[in-house]
Amino acid sequence: MERLEWYKGILGTYLEITRGEERVGSVRWQNLFSNKAVAEFRGKVFYLNRDIFLSRLEISDEKTLLGRLTINLFNPRSDVVINGKRFELVIKNFWQSRWSWNFNGAEIITFTSNEFITRDKGDIELFSACNEEVEILILLGLVLRNQFVLVILLILILLLLVIL
Length: 164
Prior knowledge:
164 residues, alpha+beta, Porin, 12-stranded antiparallel sheet, globular
């Protein structure tokens, strides 16, 4: 099992992935509500694009679409096919502080968020050697979490506006 950590300010546009003190990856958005991000993981560059309504997330490299994830905010399960393999994303709780990627019914990557509003940080545990897909799944899992947090913040802002 390999353990990584991730850090992102709640209103930040930069996310960092580390193994101990070593930086192994990052995601950089153009701005807080941008639909495009550039990610780097273990020396490889990826491009992420999300639908304006936060319902679809795509990841590609320089030439190829690597995966497309359709998101239903009311269903805690989504799936993506990468290299002909189907991976299922499972949100474990309402607060989205624990989520995982499953393959053939087994958890292969789990994510936890240790903080919610002030600053995001957490752990990533890898239980599989799906090396070709693991980089893509880690990036999709973290960017998807960022989308859910944005939706929660938008809902809270709308509720505050309605109350006031």
